[in-house]
Amino acid sequence: MMKFSMYKSILTALLLWAGMLNAQQPVPFWSQDFAGGVPAGWTTTDASNQGVLWTWCSNPEAGNTEAGCSPIFDDALNLQIPFQAATAANGFMTLDSDEAGQLSTNHRSRLTTSVIDCSGKPAVFATFETHAGRFVVDLADGALLQVSNDGGTTWTDFTVFPEFRERWTANPERPVIDISSVAANKANVRLRWQWDGNWEYYWNIDDVALYNENPTPRHNITMGEFFYPASSFASPVSQIAADTFGFYAYLSNPGLLTQTNVTLKAWIEEEGGNVVYQDSVVVPALAPGVVDSAIILNNVYAPELPVGLYTIRYSVRADSVDQRPDNNAGSSVFVVTDNTFSKENVPQSATRTSQDIAWSVGNNYRITSGLLEKYVAKTASFSFGTDPADLPIESVKGTVELFKVNDDVPANFAGFDRTQLFSGSLTWVGYADYVAPAGIQNGDLQTIDLLDLNTGLAGIELESGARYFLMIDYPTDSRQVNHFFNRDIKYVDVVSTMVFTDQWYLAGFGNDYAAVMRMDIALSSSTDEKALADNVLNVFPNPVNDVVRLKVDFEQATDATITIAQLDGRVIRYENREGLTNETLSYELPSLAAGTYLARIATKEGTKTKKFVVLH
Length: 616
Description:
Immunoglobulin-like, seven-stranded antiparallel sheet
């Protein structure tokens, strides 16, 4: 009986909770979800007489494989997914502007409803679910909802996407438009969606509804862009400590009511889900109409993490149950590597500057302050492609340059000299000449040794705490190269990928364009320039199989860096230890190939390096 009573109480509470949510949301007095085709009495026309018409699509997954449907544009540049309207699966309306190609004049495509009776409705709000992509004409200018109260003789314009200047809207976008000034208490109302465009992508519409009160959710917090605290998608294990992670996100309240005790949480998970860090902040109240308010978490995190994959997560909640919780969380990943700096995981799409001139592109990388070891930049890796009609790929040439950002340039790069590639704010420290090899294909990753500008020798010593621009310069005869980028991560409010054409553009092509321009580093030397006593470090057993043990012996507590590396200085394991005296440290090395490796300990007083052999 007790279990039954408890179950009944829980069920009653859930039903009451669901009822409260439903009570908060008004019911439409007219709606259309396009189930089964174009509704009776609706029309589609093109006032430009070019035949660019709205059509009914039965399947959001079909793309242009079915008549009436638009392409999905899920390519590497656009990264779109099928239309996500609530009832898209039973059909929706679409306008495929892309199919028409380049037109001599803009199409003016119209989708018009049959007459709707709004008599006795002192207020009328129109809403629908939509997804659109533009290429030439901004949606803020070209996409309209028009309303007539005389059956279609005269029309009043309402902007669907005010101030929207991006390529793609949200999927779905849910505009709420107050058309009371035209439609309230009128019996002969028609709605008309009009798109002036020219070789755009598409405009999808579904789940149209009219309400006699504002249907905007009462309780709705949205999280927009969030800060990606890792300075790079990939950082070497010896350098990740340079990233003192801070956390913030942009919150909005598009709902009708103030949200109280808004809690923004951020945390980091290692692979497998274990949380290695978390923090949160509470905002007492977030008023209706607040847009993109930057909410900053108070604490910072020093990520001294081992090699591996990690996920940064954010979430937001408030006292009230959010009526649209699909935008209350976000996440992104980063990796700690043995030796590689990278802003991206994989090449996705290639592009170039619109200016028909020589140009350069590259990434900003930062070295950890207070290192006990010295490191050198060994290689640069990059990826590009060409259109054979513009430029045969095997004819591509370029120069890789490594610049050190001068110490007097502030963290926000205020006052940076943008006037020339060899900027007064930079010091040129390394280079590599590149000629495309025979047989190269678009997107092939190219790796080239970096040379010290002063000595001409391989490897450029990196200064502790310094910032570096690793660039590739495409000269005039290779200016039509399309460099590869990845758009999975937004580097918000930081200098990450840069472009130089007629000047430096420190935001590159946008904060979600990460150039494929990677840098591998290694220990600068496998010998001891300032050697510690021999008994400070002993390796046993030697040879080893899967586990190497290091016997460390200091007379007093000493801060030290332990490194296991290949003979060429590429790091395999790295660890900072505080207050070492007499200890035995063990490191599992099950995946190492047979061969000779380095064990090394570094302190402020010097280093001690010893070789050991792995048997497999």
